[in-house]
Each structure stands twice: as structure tokens, then as C-alpha cells.
Amino acid sequence: MIDNNPNQSERSRDVMLSGSAWMTAGSILSRFLGAVYIIPWGIWFGNYFFRANALYGLGYNIYSFFLIAAIAGIPSAIAKQVAHYNALNEYGVGVRLYKRGLVLAVGTGAICALFLYFGAPLIDGGNPNVIPVLHSLAWAILIIPTMSLTRGYFQGYQQMAPSAISQFVEQLARVAYMLITAFIIMRLFHGSWVHAVSQSTFAAFIGAVAGLITLGVYYLRRREDFRSLVKNSSNDIHVEAKQLYQEIIAQAVPFVILGAGITIFMLIDQFTFFKIMNIATHYTYTTLSDLYAMFAVNSNKLIMITISLSSALAITAVPLLSEALTNGDQDQIKHQNSNVLALFMFVMIPAALGMAAIAGPLNRVFYGTNQQALGANILTFSSIISIPMGLFVVVSAVMQGLSQNKRAVKFFAMGTVVKLVLQWPCTYYLGAFGPLLSTGIGLMVANWLILRYLNRHFGFDKNMLDIGFRKITKYSLFMYVAALGTVYGLNFVFNLFSNPFGRVVSLIVTLAAVVIGGLIYIYLALKSRIADMILGPRSEGLRRLLKID
């Protein structure tokens, strides 16, 4: 594709790469902390581990839905609208948007927190242990909407570092509180495992406070810069308070539905899995709880590490696309859409296949040897399903950045109908794999509808994406074979001298497979120049550093 404005395209790619790097680093570190804590946490819970993890997941899925409703899509809407007005040199309007959004965020947070706290007995799914967990989570909903809104404000200025760093600090504080309370309750006082889980979920409030303080420090440091931009604005546009609220709400409602997309699918699993399996099998509640934990909590924690890569791309893409749309630059929109998809493929396909390759030892590192074969198989399947999940996060954000909110919601609704239709037969015949399969098919339908619409109305650089997809998939498969071969080879070697399925040995196998597979993929991507399409001139520097011709 010949770009009519190469300087603008290069600038946009640099902004996207820089923003994606910050958001990816923040997301991966946060998700990594959110997964690695499970090792000591599980050890301290002992025989209650799987039941505790299932209870944690049952409460967190409901909380996630309420949290998305409380946030109301306002942060992403603010990021989009602030970027829109900033492109018009109307920074003052963006500040007023933030202040009005703050009022909405505080209000929706308080309403949803009260509803979750006092309505917990109505939505516990018949499990009274869920009630104290929901009570503890309600406190976080008071704080998180304000924190998320402030992140959206920074993102509107395409400043991703504050969001990424506050996200990491939030997770660090949350995990620290979880581990400290779990150790005290379960090991020192030998207390109730339900109480320990409730404290682990209350950690969301502790993390939110830490994240909000971090953002406050960043804002104070950059306050003069913001004031200078407002002072030098064009000030040609005056928007009434009522119109500001209307803009925020009009943009926010679709963000709620689409932002809750994966959570809605998980809630469908939560409220149908036990009922369907009770008809299909004669398993006890404890066995069903263990199965639910394996696919909805255990594997989900790990695949969310790779899906967080998509979230980073999505957050970066929205303000950039909004700016291009405001400027009426159709070529730039087409270029941005192609860049987003290419970067998604470059990162997500090898990440998903890589996790599938190391599913066995990785599952043992985090969850021990309890039902290790089934757990590993579920993680392998979940890793593949993470590709359509991640793609939905990205393409739905692209639609929102291009103000195609209603159509995006419509396409998601169609995918949800497919999920609902397939949920019963898939779960009945495939057990714990069934909900994952119905999720994958439902999201693939939604993704196909969105991509078809984007192609018809905005276009893609098909040649670039076709070449990129074929080469990235081929190199990812090479990486997968190498990583899987490393896993089997090391398992065979360790079997000669010790237990190959212990946690320490599994960690060594996992790290070795990641390094070998990752180096092969990086080498092939740089050697073939496919990385140049994604990373631009940075690739040449990497080739010199790694001495690749």
C-alpha cells in the first residue's frame, strides 16, 4: 500500500508501538503477578485449594460484571473524546469532560457497590459462601471507576505510562495483601477457608487505593503541562454541561456491553455449567467445582496473560483511530486498522501457541499435580481459544474508535446468541471443554462480522495482512514444535534422574521451552524481515544487536 502521508503513518506507528509497549508491559506484569501468586496461595490453602479457587472465581465473575457496569465504559469514552477534542486543539473541553466524567464515575460506583453488597443473597447462585466474597468485593467498586476514569484521561493524551505503572502498583498491592492474609488465616490461625477467600477478594480494594494514589502522583507532576495546553487551546468550541454528559453516556453505553463481552460469556458458563453437568453426569458438587475451577479460573488466569496483550493494543488504538476519524483521514484509518491487526497477529498467535506447547509443565508449576493431565489438556485448549478472545478485544475497540458502536454491539449480540445456542450441547457432550468451545465459536462469529464490516467500509492492506498472517503462522508453528520438543525431551531426561512432574523441575522445563521457542520465533521474524512490517526501523537495530544478516 502506498501511503499518502508517510510521516503521519510513521508517527502513528511509533505512537502505537510506544503506547502498546507501555500497556503491554503493565498488563503482562500485572497478569503475571495475578497468576504467580496462586503458587504460595494454593500451598497455604492445602486441601481446600481447588474449592477456594472456584469460590474466588464464582465471586470474581459477578464482581467483574458489576465493575464494568460501574465503570460504565466511561474511561474508554473519555479517552476517545479527549483525543477527539485534543486533535481540534480544544484541550479545555477535554478537561471539562474529565470533570463531568468524574461525577458520573463516583455516582455509578456508589450505586453498583450498594447493589452488589445488599443484593448479594439474590445473585449467589444458591451458594451461601459466595455472599461474603461479594460483600468484600463491593468496596473496590467504590474506588475503581475513578481510577479507571483517570487512566482514560491520560490515554486521551496518548500517555500510556501512568496507566501501565498504576496498573502494576495496583496488582502488586493486591497480591501482597492476598498472600499476607491467606498465610495469617490459613497457616497461623488455621481459620476458615471461606474467610481467607473473602480477604483475598477484599485485596481488590487495597490495590485500587494504591493504583489511584499512583495516578494522583503522576497528575501532580504533569499538572503544569496540562494547564499550558489548556491555556494555548483554540477555545473556539463551547460545549454545554448537558451536552458533555450526553457525549459521555452515548459513547459509554456500547463500551459497557463490549467491555463486558468476555465477562458475559464467563457468566453464562458460571450459571449454566453446574446445571447442565448435573443432568449429564452424577458427579458430586465438589467434583464439578474442581472442573469449573480448571477451565473457568485456573486456565483463565494464565490465558489472560496473553489476552492482556490484545487489551494493550485495544487501549492504544482507540484514541489514534478517533484522531484519524476527526481529521477525516481515510488512508490513515486504513493504515491504522492494518497495523492493529498485524501487530495483534505478530504477538498473539505465537503467545497462544507457545502457551499451548508448555501447557503441561506450566499447569504443574501453578496448580500442582492434582488431575494434571486433564488440567494440562484444558489449558492447551484454552490457549487456542484465547486467539478469538483476544481478537474480539481488539476489533471491538477498533469499531469504537471509529464510532461504529451500535454495529459492534449488534455483532456481539449475534455472537452471544450463537454461544447460548451451543452452550448446552457442547457442555453436555464435552464437559469442561464445552463452554470453551461455545465461547470460541461465538466470538469467531462476532469477529467475522466485525472484520467484514471494517473491510467493506474502511478497508485493509490485504497484501500486507496476507503475507503477515502466512509467515507469522508458519514461524509460530516452528516455535510450537521446538517448544513442545523441548518439553518432551527434558521430561524424558529428568525422568531418568528424578520426578519430572515436580514443581521445580516443571519450572525449569517451562523456562527452557520458552527461551528456545521464543528465540526461534524472534530469529525467523527478523531474518525474514516480517518484523520490519510491524516494528519499522527498530528491526534493523535488533538485527545488528543479535548479529542476524
Automatic annotation (TrEMBL):
<feature type="transmembrane region" description="Helical">
    <location>
        <begin position="202"/>
        <end position="220"/>
    </location>
</feature>
<feature type="transmembrane region" description="Helical">
    <location>
        <begin position="175"/>
        <end position="196"/>
    </location>
</feature>
<keyword id="KW-1133">Transmembrane helix</keyword>
<dbReference type="GO" id="GO:0005886">
    <property type="term" value="C:plasma membrane"/>
</dbReference>
<feature type="transmembrane region" description="Helical">
    <location>
        <begin position="341"/>
        <end position="362"/>
    </location>
</feature>
<feature type="transmembrane region" description="Helical">
    <location>
        <begin position="248"/>
        <end position="268"/>
    </location>
</feature>
<feature type="transmembrane region" description="Helical">
    <location>
        <begin position="100"/>
        <end position="120"/>
    </location>
</feature>
<feature type="transmembrane region" description="Helical">
    <location>
        <begin position="411"/>
        <end position="430"/>
    </location>
</feature>
<dbReference type="GO" id="GO:0051301">
    <property type="term" value="P:cell division"/>
</dbReference>
<feature type="transmembrane region" description="Helical">
    <location>
        <begin position="60"/>
        <end position="79"/>
    </location>
</feature>
<dbReference type="Pfam" id="PF01943">
    <property type="entry name" value="Polysacc_synt"/>
</dbReference>
<feature type="transmembrane region" description="Helical">
    <location>
        <begin position="504"/>
        <end position="526"/>
    </location>
</feature>
<keyword id="KW-0472">Membrane</keyword>
<keyword id="KW-1003">Cell membrane</keyword>
<keyword id="KW-0131">Cell cycle</keyword>
<feature type="transmembrane region" description="Helical">
    <location>
        <begin position="374"/>
        <end position="399"/>
    </location>
</feature>
<feature type="transmembrane region" description="Helical">
    <location>
        <begin position="21"/>
        <end position="40"/>
    </location>
</feature>
<dbReference type="InterPro" id="IPR050833">
    <property type="entry name" value="Poly_Biosynth_Transport"/>
</dbReference>
<feature type="transmembrane region" description="Helical">
    <location>
        <begin position="475"/>
        <end position="498"/>
    </location>
</feature>
<keyword id="KW-0812">Transmembrane</keyword>
<dbReference type="InterPro" id="IPR024923">
    <property type="entry name" value="PG_synth_SpoVB"/>
</dbReference>
<protein>
    <submittedName>
        <fullName>Putative cell division protein YtgP</fullName>
    </submittedName>
</protein>
<feature type="transmembrane region" description="Helical">
    <location>
        <begin position="302"/>
        <end position="321"/>
    </location>
</feature>
<feature type="transmembrane region" description="Helical">
    <location>
        <begin position="132"/>
        <end position="154"/>
    </location>
</feature>
<dbReference type="InterPro" id="IPR002797">
    <property type="entry name" value="Polysacc_synth"/>
</dbReference>
<feature type="transmembrane region" description="Helical">
    <location>
        <begin position="436"/>
        <end position="454"/>
    </location>
</feature>
<keyword id="KW-0132">Cell division</keyword>
